[in-house]
Protein 1
Amino acid sequence: MVKMKTVITTILLFIAVFGAAQPAANEIIKKIDQNMSSENRVFESSMTIHGKRSSRTITSKTWSVGDKKSFTEYLSPAREQGTKMLKLENQLWIYSPSTDRTIQISGHMLRQSVMGSDLSYEDMMDDRKLSDTYDAVVTGTEEIDGRKTWVLELTAKVEDVAYARRKLWVDVERFVPLREELFAKSGQLLKQSTLSDVIQKQGRWFPTKIVFKDMLKQGDGTEFKITDILFNQDIPDHVFSKASLKM
Amino acid sequence: MIRFLLKGLFRDKSRSRLPVLVVATGVMLTVFMHTYITGFMGDTIEMNARFSLGHVKVMTRAYAENISQVPNDLALMDAGSLLGELNSKFPEVNWTPRIQLGGLVDAPDETGETRSQGPAIGMGIDLLSAESREAGRLNIQNSVVKGRMIQNTGEALLSHDFSEKLNVDIGDDITLIGTTMNGSMSMYNFKLAGTVSFGTEGLDRGTIIVDIADAQAALDMQDAAGEVLGFFESGFYDDEQAVELAESFNASYDDDQDEYAPVMKSLSQQGSMGQYVKLSDVWGIYITLVFIIAMALVLWNAGLLGGLRRYGEFGVRLAMGEEKNHVYMSLVYESIFIGIAGTVAGTAIGLFISALVQKYGIDISGMMEGASMMIPSTIRTRITPVDYYIGFIPGLFSTVTGTMLAGIGIYRRKTSQLFKELEA
């Protein structure tokens, strides 16, 4: 009887120790969502596109509310200055000041590159929480730049996602992804990203530098840096209207 | 004697009318066939040269490797200095920069929202510089259906069918949505100056033509060009000359390992055109040769029949004491006259029909739907110097040879048997 008690105690202790050390995968992605998603945010960013022949940097300011509304204004270089992008639900419009035209991006155009970067409009559009769109499984642990990470395999649980499968390396302490691989339904690796320069802002951990690499594209990837970010701001509703594109 | 023979031919219609008709028909068909083959094959090559391949084309090595994708991100930079180099090295060739572009043409409504939209393949060509020959080369002026040629920057031409599909009219604003050479989305406004129809399915489906300066501005390609095309001054493609030119240019970049270094390719070195050029050389000769041989056999036979039909006449003439040589030579001379008369008449008629087809063409657009190669939808003949004498091979040579063979029988006739033959 004493032996039996010892065995049960040992099993419970094992579960308690290892269960606490490695939460369920779906819990991990919920915690990632808590860091990466917010009610709204305003940020300024610079995007350096390392093309095959040259590199160029584009700066922009973005206002976004959840995963439904987003408005971006490009600030530089001169050719892109004043270009604006508005996302409402699953619709996307681009305003070009040189033509004074607003064009809705749809269909195959959503797969085109944003400003020649390694990001597609589809990537920008899909801002949904990981926990709403993917089921996760922890497949192991690895160390990236001295930080311990869980390796997560994510499989889409909804149909309308750009990538059927994702592989995430998540910082075990901060619950921030440090590396990500995006796969097509066929299993082909489509994109790779490395996230770094993690800062703590308004009580959450957030990576401020992401290097994207479209594996089907030549070039040395796109470096996306958030130069300033504020969460949960008061953003007036009129920002997310088609009228604001021409303002 | 010549006058005597001619009188005989004119008076005895059975000796002249039918043989001349047969020879003329054969020669006419030979001349027409030759102009038809020359015209069709040459037109296809020249059309592809003028619209996309040039007689020679300079591009970057990386662009050449992915040419089917028209990768403007791999375009030639410093196109101006490259043009200068080409003009000084190869002044016998007319060089012109081009940008091929793809994208969407979007027509706005009065509020600026998309009213209609369609995929387009575009060409940025040098239309506005004084020394440019592009408008004439592409026959744009004559292809304008509505409106006028591009006269100012910011103007565009659309293929007529495409403009009707988009429901846009002359003077309307259209926006070209494309991709810059950096991969960014680009939007650029144009005013519709005119609509064009080239008579080729591929070009008339959805083409936009703009001045190269506008294409450079729209695609962020300042002083860049996707391709620099070279055209021989003669206006006709010469494969040997083109290949030699390309080899000589490429030799100067042999040591340059840069994938963006320029490379020159002749028309025959681009895509499936090489095969076509080779085919047009070989098949042009084969088809013409087969036809000439066939016609020669027909006319030879006609000459033979003509000779045999007059078997009795020769008997009488020999019986009257005419020399066999004289009879034979008179027969040969007659056939020469018939051959010359038939050939001249056949060549004249053949050239006349060819000239008509050269001017008005034969519309085969119904057969061209979905064709991937740029084949003219109107077949036109092309009259070349050869056509003025090619008919003499079957018309004169074969007729006379046939007659000469038939005439050999004259020497086998025996005077002692002639009256017996006549009685029979």
Protein 2
Amino acid sequence: MADGGYLIRIDDVTVCFPNEDGGEKVVLNKVDLHIREGELVTLVGPSGCGKSTLLRLILGCDRPTSGSVRIDGDPVVGLSRDRGIVFQQYSLFPHLRVYENISIGPTLEDTSLPERYLLLPSFFRKRRLHRQRAREYVERIGFDPSDADKFPYELSGGMRQRVAIAQALIMRPRVLLMDEPFGALDHNTRTEMQLFLLEQWKAHGMTVIFVTHDLDEACYLGTRVIGLSQYWSDGGGQPGLGATIVTDVCTPGGHPKPSTIRSSPEFVQLLERVGHEVLDPSGRRRLTEFNLTHQDAVLQEPALPGHPISGGTSS
Amino acid sequence: MTPRRGGVLRNLLRTGVEPTWAERWLLASFFFVLLGASYFIASAHRHRENPADQVMPSFAQLVDGAKRSAFERDRDGELRLWVDTLASARRFAVSVAIVFLAVPLGVLMGTFPYVEALFERFLVFFDKIPALSVLPILFIVFGLDELSKIALIVLGVFPTVALDAYLRAKATPRERIIKAKTLGASELEVAARVVFPSVFPYTLDTIRLNLKSIMLLLIAGESLAATVGLGYRIFVVRRYLAMDIIIPYVVWMTLLLFAADWALRTVVEHPRRFQWVKYPL
């Protein structure tokens, strides 16, 4: 694999947005992040810290003001079928039935532009084939075959997100990006969907980047938790501009974790630590304290019991 | 829920009550009956004072007028009502077909910022031109035949529908467009397969609401320059105070418009295909 064994390399990325008084607002400040293939990276941080901005850089729909975002050594330019996305809302096409929503990607991939634009018979033939496959696929996401004919509005929030995940996964993207996908679900559904995601991750073996503001979700799902926060200070103790990565830890307990891990002391300790470092404004960490060496979660599993949850601070 | 007691009058200003099937019919027909009754009473009254009164024909005279228009050949040997209906319906249908083209235009504007920049100001400006005020120009430029009448309708309604489709298309969540592209859709397919279908049922409703404007402009055009047509006819027979023709014509036009509206509504309210419109995600 190219690029030093990393699938995704984000180097020294800064993002500024113009603000009302003509100046610039720094959103992300000197972000470095390297991710290996097969990791399930969760990105956690206070609201407004730029988690989604970082995700959009990897997705390719925004560009960094400076720095580089590369996948497999190639700079990210524009959207691609190699990077699937699941949003909290609006991932599905409301006018298409479940099986049509799922089959739209494969159909587009399997047909050429002239076939589609001129509506050649081969387009309809291939579309029928992929729709048939999508009907079979819905059983793998826990649907009744009869649910395949439903429209998104007829589904519950959790079911919708299942379809949205299936819609992205059927393309077998190299990276699956998820922007607070379970943020709008009730607690039980959310837990159910977390297990569903872990199942799919294990079955497909793809790389996942999962944005959330929920600490527990981040620590439970991720093989590696990245904390993005605007609460940090430069070496001299001045508040830093914008948000940067303040925490990068591998989670203990093997992957996927049993849900019982939530009550283990290690897990509770991890929650406390990440919560303090990332979400707590008074927890401002000095830049000099977190010269992060990047973790490679997958290579370290299973974490040894009592193994320090490594990160910036010398424990 | 409050138990139903006390009938229509007691329940009139109550919340949480549900009219029965019979009560609905009674209430729905109330103003129709009221209007009809007052007309015929006034008509009978006028005829008692002046048996030759032309302003408010009696029921029998109206039926006779309608019969003569529909089933008796005029001096040219034509069944007037049908000839007029056919001529107007053709103009109406061609205009509606052209107005439908406003939807794809609006979708392109709402999807592609450069197309938006190209058309938006122009359409907003065009939309503000009072269509009837350019009618003389249309007659001069396009002559007195069909083209100028259809141009009038298109001028009056096309920009409205295009701008409506544009605003709805522009409101498409950005996420949905990004999603489509990650699934391999081309830019044109984003417009055609994502934005257009999610906007189309709403614009059907807009066109429905604009059927009235289309009819209005049609009658205006026909009244000024035509040799046949529903609008033309009522303005011709006005010279002879032929209310027994005008009133059946007005009722007929209303019914036709109602039918056109109903036809579009059945499409919008298709039991399965467009139900999702009612439940935004």
